[in-house]
Amino acid sequence: MSRTIAVIGGTGPAGMGLALRWARAGEKIIIGSRDAARAQQTAEKIRQRVGPQAQVSGLENSAACAASDLLMLTVPFEGHAELLKQLKSAIRPGSILIDATVPLAASVGGRGSRTLGVWQGSAAQQTAELVPKGVSVVAAFQNVSAEVLNGDEDIDCDVIVCSDDAAATEVAMELAAKIPRIRAIDGGKLENARVVEQITALLIGLNIRHKGHGGIRITGLPDAAYKPH
Asked: Is the pLDDT of residue 149 over 90?
């Protein structure tokens, strides 16, 4: 089933990359930004790359939340909590929010590729505390290189999906599978997001050291592990 995806923070590299990949797959996308004009400019850039068939528009973040019940959050950790508090009244009841945020030290002026301690356990668990009751939070897409997402090649990476809502996990896995060569894996409860977020810091360090854009692959699992249930 095709659903409108609102990418909150969609003018940044990760958000734009995901929006680009889903627009290529034929999904309807709303780019969300603090600045509606910037969101519209990003939407136009994606249309230019995908072609006239691309269904992409741009709105201010609150309007983007109000226009869809499937939200993709791609913002730096430094503004994560503040933004969610601002958007709380705009998020529709029963929405699914997929969070790719990683609490990197560098995002708040720290040094090195390491994660910060988050009181709730992970950025995704912080999100779950801040969104309205009844909104399903999913952690996913933290380990995919934004630079690779914005390219034209297939993506050699697995996406680990963590949530306490099985139906929301299924939606996120289906979205991940729309990107060529990405495999989605059910990673269990939302609390497991803390491990997935830390993998991002490891990957950043590896990519800096070896001048690459590495992702992760999980081996040895049966085919059923990569299919929504």
From this structure: yes
